[in-house]
Specification:
By secondary structure, the chain is α/β, with parallel strands linked by helices. It has a single domain, classed as 3-Layer(aba) Sandwich (Rossmann fold), CATH 3.40.50. Helix content is 35%, strand content 31%. It is built from six helices and ten strands. Strands 5-9-8-6-10 form a five-stranded mixed beta barrel, surrounded by four helices. The longest helix is centred in the last third of the chain and has 24 residues. It is globular, with a radius of gyration of 16 Å. It is an enzyme of class 3 (hydrolase). One of its GO terms (molecular function) is methylthioadenosine nucleosidase activity.
């Protein structure tokens, strides 16, 4: 298995890059890709930049230019599911867009034309991560992760998302785009997110305080999985 690991921000990629060996850098479209190994596993690590277009484009490059056979999206998110707190970790069972509306053409809310409403994460990757979390005695939740090109920072915004997806555990700005690109190329994916905030009116301040720690926690899950 050759893993492509995609993070949006420097704070999210830092802990993973520190563990890489035999690293070689290359660039496409202004994006730097790091090829190397973590625990002797072949890895291509990349900071995509923020948002759906950046994430989808970078995922396609990982698959087409670097030949990765599985994609992991790692980083931070806003915890909007019941009982989630800053620092908690979520693994995606599936991913969806909350800011898409083609219902005028009889598509489901959040569904892009000619695409599924929900992009299903790979069960094998999900099981490997879940087992890694258990062996490390780390508590995680599994469920729906939703994506949109906005930072959620109010109860009003959360309620709008929950009206569309009552089961959503967390929201962020890249995951479903990674999932869509992986789906298009028939490459397995999973999303790992640590909560940097809970999407409330203090989310901006909380995010700034906890983004680095969230990046470390998300990375820890992946590093534990790669120890196998």
């Amino acid at each position: 298995m050759k893993y492509g690991i995609l993070c949006a921000m420097e704070e999210e990629i830092k802990a993973l890059r520190a563990e890489m060996t035999n690293t070689h850098e290359s660039e496409h479209g202004g994006i730097t890709f790091y090829e190397g190994n973590i625990n002797e596993q072949p890895i291509v690590l990349v900071r995509s930049g923020i948002g759906k277009v950046q994430a989808g484009m970078t995922t396609a490059l990982l698959i087409v230019e670097y030949g990765v056979t599985a994609v992991i999206n790692s980083g931070s998110a806003g915890g909007i599911g019941e009982g989630l707190h800053v620092g908690d970790v979520v693994f995606s069972t599936n991913a969806a867009y909350y800011d898409v509306d083609a219902t005028a053409f009889d598509y489901l809310p959040g569904q892009l034309p000619q695409q599924p409403q929900l992009f299903e994460a790979d069960e094998k990757l999900l099981q490997e991560l879940t087992q890694a979390a258990k062996s490390a005695k780390l508590s995680v939740k599994r469920g729906l992760i939703v994506t949109g090109d906005q930072f959620i920072d109010s109860a009003v915004k959360i309620n709008k998302i929950k009206e569309l997806y009552p089961a959503a555990l967390c929201c962020e700005m890249e995951g479903a785009a990674v999932a869509q690109a992986a789906y298009q190329f028939k490459v397995p994916f999973v999303i790992v997110r640590a909560m940097s905030d809970v999407g409330d009116e203090d989310a901006g301040q909380t995010f700034d305080q906890f983004i680095l720690e969230a990046g470390k926690r998300s990375a820890r899950m992946i590093l534990t999985m790669l120890e196998k």
